[in-house]
Amino acid sequence: MATVLPAGNTRSVLHSTPFPLVLKSGSGASVTSLDGREYTDFVSDYSAGLYGHSHPVITKAVAEALATGFSLGGVTEKEAQLGEILCNRFQSIEQVRFCNSGTEANTYALGTALAFNGRKKVLVFESGYHGGTLNFAPATVNSLNLPHDFVIGAYNDIESTRSLADERIGAILVEPMQSAGGMRPSSKEFLQFPRETATRVGAVLIFDEVVTSRFHFHGMQGAWGVRPDMTTLGKYLGGGFPFGAFGGRADIMNQFDPEEAGAQCLQHAGTFNNNIFTMTSAVAAADLVTEEALVRLNQLGNRVREQGNKMAQRAGFGGISFTGYGSAIGVHFHGSEESVLLHAFYFYLLRHGITIGRRGFISLNLQHTDAHVDHLIRAIRGFINEYGSL
């Protein structure tokens, strides 16, 4: 693979030494590797695979898309249906446009916000990740980042960030929980801070809910009652196909309407923005995302996190901790053996028939059951018992 693909992949998060786990199929809550081994999948495609693998509802929708034709090159009924679904779910979205990834969604949202108020500066937060071109991990210098005039604040730290926000800020972009940044949920008080700041200085507040929209039927903005001006979405909402969306207040989104904006109308193109497969699958999959289903999934995730931390405390193993929110769990190691333990944990779970994200990423999907979670908790207990003395 590495002879034709740099590092053997085209998605950096999948890089793994000495070699990656190569998969050939998935069904339900399991995946099968190229060498025929089956694993319970707790990666869930880094939260995009909310429905598990080969869900019959989505499989049926794909068959329907094949039967109707694709690459039609015109507006379709399904995209209007999907727009209604998203506007009804997320109160901050009065109008919405589609694209092909969360990266695109955040890129377009920033451009839209800055065009709306004519400013240049963007307030983001350290360790934030809003796509491959909007990565603010403190230990890296991402040469692929877009050349906006970024101001970087401290996540979950109101006082140290307060002085950075003035009338030059055009947009504030924040995740209600930092996913790639280590499953770090914000406090409700912190999330209210950019809302109050944006209102005070005239900036556009953008919530990146690409990941966090799975925690509550109305997103974390609905759970905590903090309403942004714009919201970005992606991942699972496409039903397993490439998807992104950005939307918000009608006066902001009307910049894309020639009847409203005239000569100042913003142009947003994209051959596959409304592709038949995504639109059809997304509309079908929306019926699977109920309030009850998300509550059940969050309860399973809470059990993993709570049991993991309790087991570590009982064993006196301060080198491991579990963070996150609801169905998303981050596994962290501390101390001088941090890197060694993280690798050991990943391979320990593999040996016990479980796959997670190599960086300590666990994401549940709708096909996980109590039995799957019991399996994971037993494996975590075994690891703590074996490695807790290090």
From TrEMBL:
Molecular function GO terms recorded: pyridoxal phosphate binding; transaminase activity
Gene3D superfamilies: Aspartate Aminotransferase, domain 1, Type I PLP-dependent aspartate aminotransferase-like (Major domain)
Cofactor(s) it depends on: pyridoxal 5'-phosphate
Keywords, alphabetical: Pyridoxal phosphate, Transferase
Pfam families: Aminotran_3
Record keyword Transferase present: yes
InterPro entries: Aminotrans_3 (IPR005814), PyrdxlP-dep_Trfase (IPR015424), PyrdxlP-dep_Trfase_major (IPR015421), PyrdxlP-dep_Trfase_small (IPR015422)
Coiled coil: none
Keyword Cytoplasm: no
PANTHER family on file: GLUTAMATE-1-SEMIALDEHYDE 2,1-AMINOMUTASE (PTHR43713), GLUTAMATE-1-SEMIALDEHYDE 2,1-AMINOMUTASE 1, CHLOROPLASTIC-RELATED (PTHR43713:SF3)
Family statement drawn from the similarity comment of this UniProt entry: Belongs to the class-III pyridoxal-phosphate-dependent aminotransferase family.
Protein known as: Pyridoxal phosphate-dependent transferase
Organism: Aspergillus avenaceus
